[in-house]
Design brief:
Layout lengths: L2 H36 L4 E2 L5 E3 L2 E3 L5 E2 L4 E5 L2 E2 L14 E11 L7 E2 L2 E10 L10 H7 L3 H5 L4 H14 L14 E5 L3 H13 L13 E2 H11 L7 H4 L16 H7 L12 H14 L5 E2 L27
């Protein structure tokens, strides 16, 4: 074996050893970045509830809450069955909202008790595709006659603005926010996708009272469960370390699963009914501050988001649907 060949083997060995040393560090960095991304906007306090399976122990320590009111929204929209369902030009056909306020917020801002103080619900008449598909009716339970006599989306916005004024959230003249309120939804889809699509189809800008980031309650629940230490004692726990209860990253935390995981009563009403979904999401939201979670936006909304079927001036390019 020549000296040159031996040097090559030594170099290869050193390179392999270096990669073995760097790989765990790189994985650690990626893991920290992933956790930072998921926990954005969700601040569980120290002493988060312990979890064993689906059994929880509530931590009574309260968080300091910056927002005074929360608007829970879970719209229903026109839809078609198939692989492109999420790219479809959905039009909103039900607009249900639950307004929640604190009932125990002190002067320092600490609170844990939320309650529904008002509700708003309206069906909405689609204009691009006025006829509901059979799949849509079966999924949402909304009949054709319910949307035929309903206001259009722009008319709905006028009615809902009156609701915001009547409940003291915005100024009747200027539209300025009078209190700090936060929009909430199960996942990012309702405002990020449905509202943005609908505003494009209706050829209007997103109203100022709905712009801004939102609180994705599903993400908040996932992070709460992921951060909760396991009750099973281990050698590491006895030495002072705490481990999180493993939640599969690919598991979809549906509303019924969230209720079950938090130890709440099962889903009440009909799934995919907008108002029933909204009320159950409000129940989940009300549970989070009882477990020391600070409620604040954790999901960015881009009102300029675009889909491939969007043409000019609100035109839907049907060849791309």
């Amino acid at each position: 074996m020549s000296t040159r060949t031996l040097q090559d083997y030594i170099l290869i060995g050193l390179t392999a050893a270096l990669l073995l040393c760097v790989r765990p560090v790189w994985r650690r960095i990626l893991s920290c970045e992933r956790k930072r991304e998921l926990t954005a906007g969700i601040t569980p306090l120290r002493g988060t509830p312990e979890i064993s399976g689906t059994e929880y122990h509530t931590d009574r320590r309260r968080a300091k809450q910056q927002y005074d009111a929360f608007l829970v929204l879970d719209v229903e929209g026109t839809c078609e069955d198939g692989p492109k369902a999420f790219d479809y030009p959905n039009e909103i056909i039900e607009w249900p909202v639950c307004l929640l306020r604190w009932k125990d917020k002190n002067e320092e801002g600490f609170a844990e008790g939320l309650e529904i103080v008002s509700e708003f619900r309206s069906f909405v008449r689609p204009t691009w595709k006025p006829q509901l598909s059979e799949f849509c009716t079966q999924l949402t339970g909304i009949a054709q006659e319910q949307v035929d006599g309903a206001p259009t989306f722009t008319e709905l916005l006028d009615s809902f603005r009156e609701f915001l004024e009547a409940t003291g959230l915005i100024d009747p003249v200027t539209g300025r926010r009078l209190v700090r309120y936060c929009w909430c939804s199960d996942g990012p889809f309702d405002i990020r996708d449905f509202v943005v699509k609908q505003c494009f189809i209706s050829k209007i800008a997103m109203p100022a009272w709905i712009t801004g980031d939102v609180l994705d309650i599903r993400k908040a629940v996932h992070m709460l469960l992921d951060a909760a230490p396991s009750e099973r004692p281990t050698a590491d726990e006895r030495s002072g370390r705490q481990y999180s209860f493993p939640i599969p990253r690919r598991m979809t935390l549906t509303i019924p699963r969230q209720l079950s995981a938090l130890g709440l009563a099962p889903f009440q009403g009909r799934q995919h009914s907008g108002i029933d979904d909204t009320r159950n999401i409000a129940r989940i939201l009300s549970e989070l501050p009882k477990r020391g979670v600070k409620l604040e936006p954790n999901t960015r909304i881009n009102p300029r988001k675009r889909w491939h079927w969007m043409g000019k001036r609100g035109k839907v390019l049907e060849d791309y649907v």
